[in-house]
Input
Amino acid sequence: MGRAILLVGLLLVAFGAQASLKVTVVPAKKAVRENIEAYIGTVDDDSRQALERQFRHIEEQATLAAQALGYYHTRNSLSIGGTDDAPVLQVRVELGEPVRLGQVSIEIMGPGQNTDAFLLPTAALLTPGAVLNHGRYEGVKSQINNRALRYGYFEGQYLKHELRVDLESNRADIDIQYDTGPRYRLGQVHFSETIFDPELLERMVPFEPGVPYDADLVGELNQDLLSSGYFNGVLVTAPVDKASGQDVPVQVEITERDPHSLGLGGGFSTDVGVRGKLSWDQHWVNPKGHSRGANMELSAPRQEITAFYQVPLDPPIDNNLRYFVGWQHEDIDDVETRSLAVGAELNTRLESGWQRTIGLRLQNEIFSLGDDSGTSTLLIPSLVLQRTQATGGVDPSRGYSVLMDVQGAKEGVLSTVDFARVMGQVKGLYTAFDNHRLFGRLALGAVATNDFSSIPPSLRFFAGGDQSIRGYDYQSLSPVDSTDETVGGRYLIASTAEYQYEFIDKWRAATFVDYGNAIDSLTDPLKTSVGVGVRWVSPIGPIRVDLARSLSDPDEGYKIHFSMGPEL
Output
């Protein structure tokens, strides 16, 4: 007990043995003041006499801090204010005229001269007439070194790097000469022992042996191997000390993941209520990297079971051929469907960054909606193009996503009806001043057919719900039949304009307007709803709670919507 009291006492004494620091710069320069405060640091003594003994050291630090930002003619005065119990060290710095840059010469020589590798954005800050800033000078040298290492100029060296300061003329000249030397190349890629075929691993390498060295290519290989789903450990290195001539070997240490994984999850949204999900994946079936899996999702209005078998193509990370089979039962309000589908999809990542999916599926659907029912069999070719660009991980700060889905069928070719269906969606997100966010969404769709009554509900359009027009129940907006029951529409228009304000870290308030409908004619009326909500950025993504009300149908009353997942 006594030792504990003594320890607390010592901590209190140590905590109290500090004086306050006040730095005044004339004329006021925030950057100089902050740099002086950083150089001086914490003032540990709490007595006037102890502070006075530090005056010389503190003055030297203030002078050096000002010189680092180009002010070599400072006049410093130090004093102690405050009380004996709470002294304040006061540092007043009169800056005088700054030293300005005169001649600036930055010359890159050797094979790397005039290449993109040695474009130096920071060099633009070192312009004649600008106030000398030692940090910017050092930053240019660091950038040259970093570029040389990234792009494989491992023999690069400075022939000259001089910063000459003439205090009489208040001028500083910079003279940098750097010889890049030859650019090394990436050599053969060597993988550690693994069960996978060498041919599959080679197709994952995003470069050919002999390409100019680029550290980003080494990092890309590391990321691609991790994202393949085959490995739980990847280490890619390119040791320069093992280079043969100017060819740097690439060494890859990999460990396979457990081939099987089982997932159990659940969730809730006001569209489908409570739902549970069970998934099984076999990440690799054989040394060629084939994979397979199955998913089951259960909720009160929807039950779904799907299975797939996937074959990697070239390159295998973003290109594959997937075979699938799926069964679904859905019963929402006036619409009930049972469908069975089997088919294949060819997934390709285009050089432009778009993900393209070409599909063909045979679908049988038994349905009833309103006072109508039927059975459809359709052989449906499809094309899906999508692209997402975002910054910020699970909670992007800005970005956009684009989706285009085209599909159709020809009567007589394993199909009971002719149709063509097109749907497109664009989403955009922008953050301004850190805590103001704007989100927008526009979805358009159309179905062309000679017999709309034979089109199954899964291919018609419905609106309303968490991801559509809030203020209305899920899929409650569409044309109705003679019994006033929803039957789906030929066209879809759905849009959102939303503003969010982050009032506490990870918490945002939102206000929004939704506008649209599922309709049979472009002259049919659209619905408008407004609302407010709260967003919480959880570790697994944003969770949204909204309170919305229709302006078009006030009798609908208020609707609470709960959903989660990425906005883009």
In short: Confidence is low (pLDDT under 50) at residues 1-17.
